[in-house]
Amino acid sequence: MPEISNRGKQMPESPIRKLAPFAEMAKKKGHKVYHLNIGQPDIKSPEAAIKAIKNIDLTIIEYGPSAGYESYRKKLAQFYTNQDVKVSFEDIMITTGGSEALLFALGSIMDQGDEIIIPEPFYANYSAFSAESGATVVPVNSVFESGFTLPPIEEFEKLITPKTKAILICNPSNPTGYLYSESEILQLGRLAKQYDLFLIADEVYREFIYDEDIHYSVMNLEGLEQNVIMIDSVSKRYSMCGARIGCMVTKNKEVISAAMKFAQARLCPPTIEQIACEAAIDTPQSYFDEVITEYKERRDTLISELNKIEGVIVTKPKAAFYCIAQLPVDNTDDFAQWLLESYDLNGETVMVAPAAGFYSTPGMGLNQVRIAYVLKKEDLISAVRILKEAIPVYNSTRLKKLIEVE
Amino acid sequence: MPEISNRGKQMPESPIRKLAPFAEMAKKKGHKVYHLNIGQPDIKSPEAAIKAIKNIDLTIIEYGPSAGYESYRKKLAQFYTNQDVKVSFEDIMITTGGSEALLFALGSIMDQGDEIIIPEPFYANYSAFSAESGATVVPVNSVFESGFTLPPIEEFEKLITPKTKAILICNPSNPTGYLYSESEILQLGRLAKQYDLFLIADEVYREFIYDEDIHYSVMNLEGLEQNVIMIDSVSKRYSMCGARIGCMVTKNKEVISAAMKFAQARLCPPTIEQIACEAAIDTPQSYFDEVITEYKERRDTLISELNKIEGVIVTKPKAAFYCIAQLPVDNTDDFAQWLLESYDLNGETVMVAPAAGFYSTPGMGLNQVRIAYVLKKEDLISAVRILKEAIPVYNSTRLKKLIEVE
Fold first, then answer.
1. Strand, helix or coil at A405?
2. In chain A, which residues have their Cβ closer than 8 Å to the Cβ of B241?
3. Which of A82, A154, B194, B309 is 20 to 30 A from A242 (CA-CA)?
4. B4 vs A contacts (CB less than 8 Å)
5. Which run of H or of E encompasses B228?
6. Which residues of B, range 144-173, sit inside 8 Å of A by Cβ?
7. A13 touches chain B (CB under 8 A)
């Protein structure tokens, strides 16, 4: 039997999706599972998008251009310009999800063994995309206690080697919900300029900001036009995760032409979904206002409920729809599985994402979980109540087990 | 300014898409361009698929499962089983186009520097996907004069090194239109078994067979269950190139689990298009009968028209919707550009795909073009008439230029 590749063996498994079979089992037992683990919002997609799909006027679902429909790229350029991110459609390549945008960016700038510095905890799939691209992730720790602010810039600088090609941030951050300040982005920009590095920002949560803070895009870094690459997607903006439409934005023409070769090889992004996304651009501001109000209330509810649990520590996130909470348990990997496998409160249980999967440094985040507040407030309240009841049960079960073993 | 990657520099450009700007220019001059260069059929997508899109019953376009919807995978397994390719849904992973299926397959089995043997001429993007995966393409020449039959198996054997991991074929073949016989597939199977290689078959044209020949899938190779990987797509079957829905099929569980990690990283294939493809499975046989009849007539028309041109040599293709024709010109790259840039017959011209782009060996195929017969018969007749008139004009222009230079 022929052997699979080392790359195939070394590709990291999704730390969240590996719990999925246990959630399935819980559901088969008839238990209701509150999914605090996923980034799939329950918010409706914009009517304009759904309508565009229903009214589709095609008899052949044809290939589109490799870079995406020009009409869509032009509307998107206007959309960003309205948000004070001044780009032309030629700076934009439509991709099959933000995932592909990041794969194209990494493929275009990283060779086998090149290093990319990423503040951890970070979106787990960054490890997978790096592995696919042959790049090595060099994590820099952002600290739970400080609410995951940008690590001191000297910490980044210490990690730069001749193999360092890029810094990657997620802003606002999945999994921490942290929003980098303008001054933090400026610091990163100066460092990237000084060492001639690419600075990639995954800004897919750019709309989801709940207080007075303002999102500062890397695209606005003056003098860094050749260094910055923005990753974006409609998944969260329009609650269209299944559309698989994203984009890569950069003013660096060499990056665009390299990425164009990756894009041509895979022919084009999906046609129907692209038409839906073009229609979605006209979504009125009221849609976003409602969504933001809803998420803000969910965030406030979640944080206030979590704070009622003894031993739980959590910082109120500024943006996106995640937070990292520290729980009074030793190992959240084990706890998360136990919740699905062995626990229920009146037939209900909770699925959380163990945070270790978001750290690249082994041993980090073992007592942390990522919680997505993509459920209705009443569901969030029920879910947190289950967590509250479950923690002491889990700890006493584990204690009993330890005693038995000894 | 930071440098892009060597991989980005070395990624081959699409040999066809690089002519696109010249076609644009011709159109801007008001010329009609007959596209003999592309694989985008003008056949309508099945009504069931379009209807499923129009009747979509979703308010949120959500993430689907990473391996694709189980309901779709099950229907697809039944679809293949009806074609005597006996697979279970667990052997099938839905991908974003056949392109992604091949990327997942290569990523799962090839490491940097590993070698893959491919009979040339081959689908140009195989080079791109290999470059993306760090794999080295080792071409084995299939001969124009013999109608592109399988090269003698000893030619493959000679090329096997300790780095050889796989053989890749396209069956039926884009760009040659050749259909491998059962005996040829059996030979490849024995070789793969003997040297413990993967045997990948891109079978996306499996339905398009025009005479009495029968398609023999690699999935039916007995004892090769752990070696074979089939690549498929709905692009051609249902004339849904823009849907970007394909699949990877294999009974090798290690390959499936490695590919699953690639699949999880990119989350899922597009939701709407997948629903359309599931509906398309019920497309009645009459749809295919009509399509095949139409293509058969187009093929016969094209070949008989081409044979009327002095100096053109072409073998009647058995399958798919391409043929490779040898033209009485020195360099079809130059000729194809000239057709768009400097020639028209009553305001009309033709775009062909220079065949050199389908060879990995430099200097091969310089006087060949790939012609796709995806246009109506009357358009094929007009297009070939233009070719016929253009060739002597081109040759005398080139001769004049040569004399001027001397």
1. helix
2. 61-63, 267
3. A82
4. 108-109, 254-255, 258
5. strand B228-233
6. 165-166
7. yes
Contact A234, A277 (CB under 8 A): yes
Token pair in block for residue B237: 């079957």
Q: Is A17 on the interface with B (CB under 8 A)?
A: yes
pLDDT tens digits for B250-290? 999 999 999 999 999 999 999 999 999 999 999 999 999 99
Partner residue opposite B13 with nearest CB, options A40, A242, A261: A261
Matching residue, tokens 């490890």: A127
ipTM at complex level: 0.94
- The C-alpha angle with vertex B9 and arms to B4 and B12, in degrees rounded to 5, equals 145
Cα B195 to Cα B161: distance, rounded to the nearest angstrom: 10
- List CB contacts (< 8 A) between B226 and chain A: 1-2
Chain A residues near residue B265 by CB distance under 8 angstroms: 11, 14, 99, 125, 128-129, 132
- Written as one letter, the residue type at A361 is T
Residue B392 neighbours by CB under 8 Å, 6+ apart: none
DSSP for residue B369: E
Minimum CA–CA partner of B265 in chain A: A125
Taking an 8 Å cut-off on Cβ atoms, the answer to whether B165 and A2 are in contact is yes
Q: Residue A174: CB partners within 8 Å, gap ≥ 6?
A: A39, A123, A204, A205, A320, A322
Helices marked H in B110-220: 125-132, 153-159, 182-195
Q: Do the Cβ atoms of A134 and B132 come within 8 Å?
A: no
Interface contact flag, A270 B273, Cβ < 8 Å: yes
Residue A291 CA to residue A286 CA, distance in Å, equals 9
The pLDDT, as a whole number, for residue A213 is 93
pLDDT of residue B256: 97
Please give the backbone phi and psi of residue B232, each rounded to the nearest 5 degrees, phi first: -140, 170
Peptide bond into A46 cis (omega under 30): no
* pLDDT tens across the length of chain A (406 residues): 899 999 999 998 887 777 888 999 999 999 999 999 987 888 999 999 999 999 999 999 999 999 999 999 999 999 999 999 999 999 999 999 999 999 999 999 999 999 999 999 999 999 999 999 999 999 999 999 999 999 999 999 999 999 999 999 999 999 999 999 999 999 999 999 999 999 999 999 999 999 999 999 999 999 999 999 999 999 999 999 999 999 999 999 999 999 999 999 999 999 999 999 999 999 999 999 999 999 999 999 999 999 999 999 998 999 999 999 999 999 999 999 999 999 999 999 999 999 999 999 999 999 999 999 999 999 999 999 999 999 999 999 988 877 776 6
A175 to chain B nearest CA, in Å?
A: 16
CA B201 to chain centre: 11
Q: d(Cα A402, Cα A243) in Å, to the nearest integer?
A: 47
Cβ of A132 within 8 Å of Cβ of B107? The answer is yes
Instruction: For the sheet with B164-170, list strands across it.
Output: B92-95, B246-249, B228-233, B198-202, B164-170, B115-120, B136-141
Choose, out of B126, B198, B244, the residue to mutate when testing the contact with A (most A CBs < 10 Å).
B244
Interface of B with A in 97-126 (CB under 8 A): 97, 99-100, 103, 107-112, 114, 125
If contacts are CB pairs under 8 Å, which of residues 245-284 in chain B contact chain A? 252, 254-255, 258-259, 261-262, 264-273, 276
C-beta atoms of A265 and B11 within 8 A: yes
Distance from the Cα of A405 to chain B's closest Cα (Å) equals 35
Q: For B4-31, how does the pLDDT look when each residue is reduced to its tens digit (9 = 90+)?
A: 999 999 998 887 777 888 999 999 999 9
Domains of chain B: 6-44+286-405 (3.90.1150.10), 47-280 (3.40.640.10)
If one counts every other C-beta atom within 10 angstroms of the C-beta of residue A68, the result is 25
* CA B188, chain centre distance (Å): 20
